[in-house]
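for the recovery benchmark. tokens below, seq after
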């Protein structure tokens, strides 16, 4: 079973190509965000390991669920469930410009790749607990893949 990672150049380029295939008229299969909001959300999520967005602390019960969810996704190579809740700080419920968000997401992906290549990814996530570079690459790919599938690319 192939476990795709954003750290593998083949899958990194796949994500870039899929983002480039989005259009302002891309319609969602589920959820509330439009395509521009989804790209802003994905940029925000990538900004967590870039240390530009700090997530608020959570209680032990949610953290335990997060750690178990990370393990489940890794063991079974599952996708992320549709309409899964997220941190309030990562919710995008305002208008966004398509071209601006697409360019910003591609730029943020480059920043993420540079952080990975320079060994500058954090070793902890508020929800998922201890994180390795392998964890970041796998989970960030899964998150981007989830939202790109949401918009049929």
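predicted aa per position
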């Amino acid at each position: 079973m192939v476990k795709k990672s954003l750290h593998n150049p083949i899958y990194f380029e796949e994500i870039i190509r899929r983002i480039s295939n989005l259009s302002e008229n891309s319609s969602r299969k589920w959820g509330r965000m439009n395509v521009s909001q989804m790209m802003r959300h994905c940029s925000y999520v990538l900004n967590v390991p870039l240390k530009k967005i700090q997530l608020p602390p959570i209680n032990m019960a949610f953290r335990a669920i997060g750690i178990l969810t990370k393990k489940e996704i890794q063991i079974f190579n599952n996708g992320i469930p549709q309409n899964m809740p997220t941190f309030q700080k990562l919710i995008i419920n305002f208008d966004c410009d398509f071209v601006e968000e697409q360019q910003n997401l591609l730029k943020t992906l480059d920043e993420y790749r540079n952080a990975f290549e320079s060994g500058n990814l954090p070793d902890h996530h508020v929800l998922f607990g201890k994180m390795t570079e392998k964890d970041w690459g796998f989970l960030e790919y899964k998150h981007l893949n989830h939202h790109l599938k949401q918009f049929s690319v």
